[in-house]
Amino acid sequence: MQRKSDDKHVNSTDEIIWNKIKSGDEAAFMQVYDANYKHLYLFGFSICQDPDLVKDQIHDLFCEIWDKRERLSTVYNIKSYLFTCVKRKIIKHIKLPLNPIITQEGIEPSIEDIIIAGQTEDLNAAKLANAFKSLSPSQRQIMLLKYYEGLSYEEIASQLNNKPRTVYNQVHDALKRLRASLKILF
Hints:
Elements: H1 2-22, H2 26-47, H3 51-67, H4 78-95, H5 111-133, H6 137-148, H7 153-160, H8 164-185
């Protein structure tokens, strides 16, 4: 029962901070930026291993938030909102590059190459989703908290009323199981 009130408190605090940003409070904006940049970068880098692209997408996101602050909808969980936005921006940029893609030979890939690459990515995502289903419900929850929400072992342990070592072991076992499942699929 206590967790629900804690979540409500976190959400109401996030809502207050978000409303301050919407009203032009630069200190609140910088507080959100400073508190989340490192986590967003690590999360973004797990999606795309291009540090400059990840930094650019995070920077663009915060510029968009500030520029459009008066028109933003209410956000109850800032961290989740930012993670979702960064993920979408990176994926959109990878799939629909703003600059032409040039190969080592200096030739832009054909539309067929781009379609095949997209289909391969979709197929790999489906294989990963199937492998993810092989995990236990607790392993799936921990993996989502670790890799989607970007929480530390200690934060996950606190949220799930577990010990950090238990969470670490669960992540280790889940990764082992995913590797084994994906090895068979590929």
